[in-house]
Design goal:
The protein is built from 2 helices and 7 strands; from the N terminus they run βαββββαββ. By secondary structure, it is an alpha/beta fold. It has a single domain (3-90), classed as Sandwich (Hypothetical Protein Aq_1857, Chain: A).
């Protein structure tokens, strides 16, 4: 299952702190038709999504994205302009 670094959990919590996002919201990672991964704010999981709830941060994984990220680590950082950037690495 996908795991989150402390930085990723913090940035996800910051993103969903937006008043427009419900309390049980999170970010959803899905794969598009080209196989690329997309990340977006979501009010909740879609049917069939796996839910990763770590350190108060919720990530919803579309089934195909969940398979691709099964043994991965999600990290996050903020660039000089203040934009959050997520990256995927190997666990352990």
């Amino acid at each position: 299952m996908l795991t989150l670094t402390d930085n990723a959990a913090t940035e996800i919590r910051n993103l969903v702190a937006n008043p427009e996002v419900p309390d049980d919201g999170g970010v959803r990672i899905a794969s598009n038709q080209d196989g690329a991964l997309t990340l977006a704010l979501a009010a909740g999981p879609a049917d069939g999504d796996a839910v990763v709830d770590q350190s108060g941060a919720r990530v919803f994984l579309e089934p195909q994205a969940g398979q691709l990220l099964d043994d991965k680590l999600l990290d996050a950082g903020v660039d000089p302009e203040g934009n959050v950037q997520f990256s995927i690495g190997q666990q352990g």
